[in-house]
Amino acid sequence: MISNKIDEMIASAMKNREKELLEVLKLVKCEFVKATKDGVELNDVTETKILLKMCSQREDSIRQYVDGGREDLANAEKAELNIINSFLPKQATDEEIEDFTRATISAYCLTMDEGHKLSMRDMKPILTIVQEKYPNANGKLVSKVLNGIVNNK
User: Fold this and answer.
1) More confidently predicted of 152 and 16
2) Residue 144 has what pLDDT?
3) Model-level pTM?
4) What is the C-alpha separation between 13 and 20, in angstroms, rounded?
5) N or C: which end of the chain has fewer CB within 10 A?
6) Is 129 exposed, middle or buried (0-12, 13-18, 19+ CB in 10 A)?
7) How far, in Å, CA of 56 to CA of 148, rounded?
């Protein structure tokens, strides 16, 4: 599990006096502990979701700092993002996710009644299926593919 690796890396970073790395590792550990207190059972999937959320927060901050002309703060966020990304499993390419999403939509349509017209209301079950295979799939990409199919693009 990722949390065990984090614990080992915290001890190592403390010994080696790696202040920046230690701060990020503690942030990750804090998020894991917070999730546990909220009743979430930690496993690889839930830990990955927590890390993805943290990455998304960093990416938003980077955009805001760059827009505000604060490159120094953007660079600090980028450094944190790189460390957090190092714990994530290899991400599937957008093309792989898009292809799987199209196949999932086709299979989903086969399970529906004959007169069923595909709409954005079908998004949640499709997204759930895609995220079972690719836990770090971008929901925006899945939505874009579904939207394109619904609107015959």
Assistant:
1) 16
2) 80
3) 0.64
4) 9
5) C
6) middle
7) 24
pLDDT reported for residue 54 = 92
Q: Compute the radius of gyration of the chain from its Cα atoms.
A: 19
**What does the alpha-carbon distance between residue 53 and residue 124 come to, in Å, rounded to a whole number?**
19
Q: What is the mean pLDDT of the chain?
A: 85
Distance CA 93, CA 149 (A): 20
Our CA angle for 11, 58, 139, nearest 5°, is 115
- C-alpha 64/C-alpha 33 separation (Å) is 28
Between 65 and 147, name the one with better pLDDT.
65
Kindly give, in sequence order, each residue whose CB lies less than 8 Å from that of residue 48, ignoring residues fewer than 6 positions away. Answer: 2, 88, 89, 135, 136
Q: How far apart are alpha carbons 150 and 141 in whole angstroms? A: 14
Is the pLDDT at 153 greater than 60, yes or no?
A: no
The pLDDT of residue 101 is 83
